[in-house]
Amino acid sequence: MLAGICLQVVSLLVFAFFCAEYFLRVRRNSDRLNPATAALRASPKLHKFLWALLVSFLTLFVRCVYRIPELSGGWRNSVMQSERDFIVLDGVYVFSFICCHCLGESILTGSTQHGHPRRPRAHNLPPGFLHGGAVPRHIKRLRRLRQRSRVRR
Fold this sequence. Notes:
Layout: H1 2-28, H2 38-42, H3 44-72, H4 78-81, H5 83-109, H6 137-152
Helix pairs in contact: 1-3, 3-5
């Protein structure tokens, strides 16, 4: 178990190194970048997403580093026995990681639901889907209007 956590910390450090190297290369060579992506690089959505990604990375990294001394002393370790430290350094960090990660994804994609930009409307559903076979009048009217507009085209 301890080896797995140490491997996770090492892989997170490698990830952080490559991200920092990429960031520095983009900073230094901004004149050589594709001009078509300039609007994306300047967009506030991307900047907010990158900040959310950074905070989620840091919370996950601190949690993994905390787990190393917690697990290294065995089950009777004083760090393992401290419930307050566990709640703060494990529960709160995992919760903040999840919040930042989900918030960053929704900022970048602009979706309110995971993977779905908006909820399906009732008039887009098959007949009787919501009401057990009975289709409300306003949905029937919308369907008739759509059919009429299709016929006119």
